[in-house]
Structures
1.
Amino acid sequence: MIKIAPSILSADFSNLEKEVKQLEAAGADMIHIDIMDGHFVPNITFGPGLVSAIRPHVNTAFDVHLMISQPEKYIDDFIKAGADIITIHAEATHHLNRAIWQVKDKGVKACVALNPATPINALEEVISYLDMVLLMSVNPGFGGQTFIESSLEKISRTRELMSRKGVDIDLQVDGGLNHETVPDIIKAGANVLVAGSFIFSAPDKKKAIQQLRMV
Ligand code: DX5
Ligand code: ZN
């Protein structure tokens, strides 16, 4: 089943209540919230205060993508703010296993993200504990970048790793997704699609979401 996770990085920040309500009405499977600290990535976005401010306005699951150094310092705050899924970058912590359990012990779904240059063997020892893997298909920090083609092969190899380990979990891809790049991404084995600029630049969010789901 293909799941669509619109990223509010491309939303109108002055009107996030309206934007998240529109995404819920448009059939988003989850709302992808990009947290950036200006340290792990060269951009700054939202904190837990913003996540808790928009939480009451929709029932859609919150998929919180932490692009922050030392995520373990803030995981509890984002869970309190209403995250349903927490994604930690493997590159951002010395203690990935501990950070995963910090999430899971609170009953929240745990996901590990890899930057484009990080080899998938970073997942080998933790994949059995995860609910989802996120492969970045751009260098994180900004919306509207071009999909990195070598990500396709990485997606297939990640699916192979999952079957070798006997885990059947979600495989999410983030960065440069649109109606042209998505068909090959799905063929390669991804089933959760993050899209920011494609959905927010479309005149009709519902149609854009359906378009990605159908390709
Ligand atoms: C990039 C973020 C993405 C971003 C994707 O650092 O993690 O979620 O919003 O944006 P698009 O879909 O425009 O590439
Ligand atoms: Zn993201």
2.
Amino acid sequence: MNFAYKILGTGSYLPGPSVENERFSEFLDTSDEWISTRTGISRRHLSQGEPTWKMGLHAATAAVEAAGIDAREIGLIIVSTLTPDYTTPILSCILQKELGAVNAFCFDVNEACTGFIQCFDIAMRYLMTSDIRHVLIVSAESLSKLVDYSDRRSCVLFGDGAGAVVLSRDLKSENTPYEAFFGADGELGGAIVGEAFPPARHPFMPEDMPVELTRFDHPSGRHIAMQGQEVYRFATTKMPFSVEKVLARANLSVDQIDRIIPHQANDRILQSAAKRLGIPSEKMVSHLRDMGNTSSASIPICLDQEVRAGRIKRGEKLIFAGFGGGLTYGALLCEY
Ligand code: ACO
């Protein structure tokens, strides 16, 4: 199919002051040494009471400005978030109102850390098959809402932040390469669990009837509980597998790719994937040291930071690779 698109603008936002690893040893049995050597993380930004939608708005505003378009030209807003402020109105509708994007229709996607690349792929499909010219994709996450700060195995990993992209049909170019691949393994769902709404107790049920939420062995209620080693094994296999899939579909070899921007979860996962793919580790973008794991926001934040630092240039071929809750995984190949 002959189709041309352009990543017209990017934006990102990290809230509050950054919190250094040592701060965790004030209330947990942990250390900067353990966290940085096992994960590559030194600090993370945590919202100081700022809602998720506001972080998303900062990133979205920056992306729309960078794209040089009027918000009224946006035909669709897709938000990925695991941590919205409201179940309704959905976050994308809040952003539509705040941006004045009156001509956009809106929906939210929750595919945990794989959410951004899924939204990017959905956006591409709308651009290919409809008359929409500009799609705004926003990934905004406040993991500090979900994290149990008494669980040293998970709380040190996560940060808050938002990233955004304006993805547009390019009327000037002939064709732009694009491929995507996604997968899921519900068998491993119990590796990352966080409750949403347990069944309600209401007036039309016997008072002694227990409410049931037994699908997963999950002691931490609405907080995220993670089986780190299970996720680690999954990520080190599925991330390079997804990258190889999109490369095969695009008929390209890994050395024809300029940069891979993976979901930022653990530096050891990224290094292991780089080794398996046979690429130099500099090609595997890692901003983990300064932001930790911001779930679905991590890829667009890295993209924006790389673009603004001039390290990603027009015409370069990029792969975004994600994995996370579900468990889900995937990758896409695009051109900047
Ligand atoms: N400080 C000190 N010790 C710790 C800490 C900590 N913060 N966390 C765990 N430990 C201890 C454990 O209690 C354990 O001690 P024990 O042997 O006495 O029981 C020991 O360190 C080893 O624990 P492991 O879990 O085996 O440590 P591992 O080397 O596997 O590293 C980690 C844990 C960093 C979580 C790793 O497994 C990992 O990165 N997994 C992937 C996580 C991930 O990718 N999450 C992203 C998906 S989720 C999402 O994005 C929403």
